Amino acid sequence: MDMHPHAQLIHDFYTAFQRRDAQAMAACYHPDLEFSDAVFVGLRHARATAMWTMLVERGTDLQLTFRDVQADDHTGRAHWDAHYTFSTTGRKVINRIDAAFEFRDGKIVRHRDAFDFWTWSRQALGPAGLLLGWTPLLKNQVRKQAQRSLDKFMKERGLTGP
């Protein structure tokens, strides 16, 4: 059975992620890309591709699996699980993520990852995540720290972009 070209694109994206090949991941994205998840919101192409580069470089023990890839001419979806050590705390995390995609010109133009932030924060942050992971306060603090990390990463590599 032939795979829809957009399903193949999703498969290629996650296969590149498994190989820690951020450049191949970026090649799956349309120049007008917008990426969002619970931590990184509204990233445009340059920042989204820098985020993936940062994550694959820093996630030294990252293990990724994906499944349930489906796509048609306009939209797609997949489920992926990431097993890694959260570098800030040294705690082990298993993040279960549902991804939704939109396509334009044979590339991913919208990528939305959805995961349970409270579940993630309990694993990544320990007691603070357990007690406060459901609150907007902690989520906003994590978002700000993630943006600062991404800004620093991009500055260190001379990368620019919205």
Provide a descriptive summary of the structure in words:
The chain has a domain at 5-115: Nuclear Transport Factor 2, Chain: A (Roll). 43% of the residues lie in helices and 33% in strands. The protein has helices spanning 5-18, 22-26, 45-58, 117-125, 127-132, 136-156; strands at 29-36, 43-44, 63-71, 75-86, 91-104, 107-114. With 162 residues, it is α+β, with helices and mostly antiparallel strands. The longest helix has 21 residues, at 136-156. It starts with a helix and ends in a 6-residue tail after the last helix. A 6-stranded mixed β-sheet has the order 2-1-6-5-4-3.
Q: What is the CATH-assigned architecture of the domain at 5-115?
A: Roll
Using only C-alpha atoms, the radius of gyration works out to 16 Å
Q: Can you tell me the CATH class of the domain at 5-115?
A: Alpha Beta
Shape: globular
Strand content: 25-35%
- The counted number of beta strands is 6
